[in-house]
Sequence to fold (82 residues):
Amino acid sequence: MQVFDRFPTYADAIDFAIKVRKTMRLETIICRTEEQAAEFDLFPFELTSPIVLVARFYPIQEEVERLVEKFASEYGGTFAGT
Fold:
């Protein structure tokens, strides 16, 4: 999963997740806490909520990841890693 955090507001995280779902048709999980995110993806670094996890898409992964990262920046989120 791709991990995005540091959205300015929970509403921004939701808007980002909706855009990814509609545009890329990728599953997203919105988490209010780092503990909640850890239930889905064990990420070895400290995260700042709200956090959005995005399912990976393998056939054209690099292009999709770059586009999803761009979407996150539009909503004030930060790409934290995979």
The longest strand covers residues 2-5. The helical segments are 10-24, 34-38, 61-74.
